[in-house]
Amino acid sequence: MSQDEVVSRFVEAMSSRVKAADEARGSAVAGLELIAKAIRENPGTGQVGRLVGFLGCLYNGDRFPFDMTELRALDGELARACLDVLRLDSFGQSEVRNRPPTTP
User: Fold this and answer.
1) In whole angstroms, what is the distance from residue 3 CA to residue 15 CA?
2) Which of 28, 53, 74, 94 could connect to 88 by a Cys-Cys bridge, CB 3.0–4.6 Å?
3) pLDDT > 70? residue 16
4) Are 82 and 72 in contact (CB under 8 A)?
């Protein structure tokens, strides 16, 4: 394989990954909004406890371990929202807790 072919394949792979991350971002943001709304509107419920545990694990899984099978106890819409967030997290550009804060 020539050097040009290697570079071309690398660029294709990276473009594909960036496109997939961009596509996942929209549904992840909508999922986070739904999760936040459920937490605000239903404090103290079992679903909220699971949602908080899920978000804590994404933030720092060592400090806040979470059994992903707990997602099975969520209603379908919230479970899909969590999976959308997890899909974006799978691109793993950096740990959430280590990212610099963004300013609006």
Assistant:
1) 18
2) 28
3) yes
4) no
Q: What percent of the chain is modeled with pLDDT above 70? A: 88
Task: Retrieve residue 42's tokens.
Answer: 């239903």
Q: Which two tokens stand for residue 3?
A: 């050097």
Residue 57: how many other CB atoms lie within 10 Å: 19
Assign residue 7 a region (left: φ > 0; alpha: ψ between -120 and 50; beta: otherwise). Answer: alpha
Residue 91 contacts residue 24 (beta carbons within 8 Å)? yes
Which residues make Cβ contacts (< 8 Å) with residue 55, sequence separation at least 6? 35
Amino acid occupying residue 66:
F
Element (H, E) at 94: none
Question: Residue 6 belongs to what H/E stretch?
Answer: helix 3-41
Q: The pTM is what? A: 0.72
Q: What whole-number distance in Å separates Cα of residue 79 and Cα of residue 92?
A: 20
Q: What is the largest CA-CA distance in the chain?
A: 60
Neighbours of 69 (CB within 10 A): 7
